[in-house]
Design a protein that fits this description.
alpha/beta; five-stranded parallel β-sheet; Rossmann fold; 142 residues; 5 helices; globular
């Protein structure tokens, strides 16, 4: 099971510099701890400027070790980079969800997209929805 994770507009509001980066991470980490079989794949543009180790720094150790990144494909939308990652690292049965704020980066009606409002980032409501999706994915994996 894979979670493709954006940063801006998810782990912190994208349009409000008053809140610190990763201020929503405390909402996400308990969800990830409850789903230890989920691997996290960073799809954020932050991966263009930071190393994998730098991208892992804000996360707790038990979660940071589960983090990888999507490939950079010039001119591709985020969905295309996710599809490339899946082609390289997944099987046809791999379950996945993308936690993102950029609906334009995905095909219209993409069932794998869990959308955050870029003005707020991750909220309790979206975190609960993610938790439900991950639980459903785990139950279908067995």
């Amino acid at each position: 099971m894979l979670l493709f994770l954006d940063f801006d507009g998810v782990l912190h509001p994208a349009l409000d510099g008053r809140e610190p980066n990763f201020c929503r991470l405390p909402l996400l980490e308990p969800v990830l701890r409850a789903a230890p079989s989920v691997s996290i794949v960073i799809s954020s543009t932050w991966r263009e400027a930071l190393t994998l180790d730098e991208l892992r720094e804000p996360f707790s150790a038990g979660i940071a070790c589960r983090i990888a990144v999507t490939p950079l494909l010039e001119g591709a939308l985020r969905h295309g980079e996710i599809m490339r990652y899946l082609k390289l690292h997944a099987t046809h049965a791999t379950e996945w969800v993308a936690l993102d704020d950029a609906v334009v980066e995905f095909p219209r009606g993409c069932p794998y997209l869990l959308l955050c409002d870029p003005r707020t980032g991750l909220t309790d409501t979206v975190a609960r929805e993610l938790e439900l999706r991950l639980m459903q994915m785990q139950s279908t994996a067995f």
